[in-house]
Fold this protein.
Amino acid sequence: MTEKRGIFITFEGGDGVGKSTHIRFLANTLENQGFKVLCLREPGGTAIGESLRSIVLDPAHEAMAPEAELLIYEAARAQIVAEVIRPALDRGAVVLCDRFFDSTVAYQAFGRGLDRAFVDAANVFATGGLMPDRTILLTLGEASQGADAGLDRAAGRADADRLELAGHDFHTRVAAGFLALAEEFPDRVRTVDSSGDRSLTSAMIFHELSDLFPWMRDASLCSEEFFAVLDAPFVAQASSTHGGGARG
């Protein structure tokens, strides 16, 4: 791993689809296999990014224009790519990121209605053209189901953020945007239904990554018993305490 570029994997999807749980499990497995792993979230991952995150997600900023929202996300992304992601990949690490530029297309282009071509160009500018090697899109079925899951998650929390409070129609457009991206980029974006047991979802994620990590095809390493630990109650409780990335 130290003699070649690392591997960049992003996780996408609406709120409540299980990104944090599956990123953590994948990271632990990769580390046990000897890989250097870095887990990140967007926006965030740097001092500048975390400051921008607090601004863009603050419910008090209800009047924020969609254009301003987009540029805040891109500023945070430019910083994390330059300061953290590229150096980690150059060191040969596996970088797992909770959201990346696909969220910006889904939330700001499909959700807010900003011009798709401009959003795509802004993403390229912020990332310097960096592309994930693989994107795992976790879904809960149809677009309306994904929207309902996000709204249910927000309704149950006293600290719901500005985008979680954006309403059903907005989240339906976002969920549809993610599915459209999966159809547009099938080689990179792999859709995994996370509505079933966590163990089944994780096994499907490993299957979609097995061309990058051939040992994931080894049934003696990645058996049903190996994934079954994810269905234990303490895993669900621990995962609920971890905040994920945030829409943009």
Notes: Strands lie at 7-12, 37-41, 94-98, 134-139, 189-193. The mean pLDDT is 90. The two ends are 30 Å apart (CA to CA). Residues 66-90 form the longest helix (25 residues).
